[in-house]
């Protein structure tokens, strides 16, 4: 076998760490067992006081109906670390976003949109009919993202979130039709 034959064997797995403009490459990938500590840290930074532990995340992902996706961003040395993730559940044609979080230092870079678009692709492939989520009504960036992804408000849960100085923030229940 020549060098090019070997390169072809790994073409599906190898992604360069940097592109031509020396920007770090990001990839959407499946959550792996060795991601749990990093994902728990991202979740803790995103949801102080309501964070899920690495064990909680691992237990969810062991469920047959739950899947997780992660955005990995390469550094100069090619190491890809998790910067955002989503967990979703699909049961009998209806899906829900369990959680989605991004490293605060990596927000506003389109990672949540990329994750949600990949969730939509996967759910469409699996013939899901609808996707639900809850979002803090005061999180204007997230609400705008979800509205831009064809979600619509279908309900409210008053006092659903308890964080910071807000004793019981309202959650918007949103739905996107996939069929």
Task: Provide an overview of this structure.
With 179 residues, this protein is an alpha+beta fold. The protein has a single domain (14-130, 140-149), classed as Gcn5-related N-acetyltransferase (GNAT) (Aminopeptidase, 3-Layer(aba) Sandwich), CATH 3.40.630.30. It is 28% helix and 37% strand. It has five helices and seven strands; from the N terminus they run αβααβββαβαββ. The chain has helices at 3-9, 36-46, 54-62, 111-125, 140-148; strands spanning 26-30, 66-74, 80-91, 94-102, 130-136, 152-163, 166-177. α2 (36-46) crosses α3. The chain is globular, with a radius of gyration of 18 Å. It starts with a helix and ends with a strand. Residues 1-13 have low confidence and may be disordered.
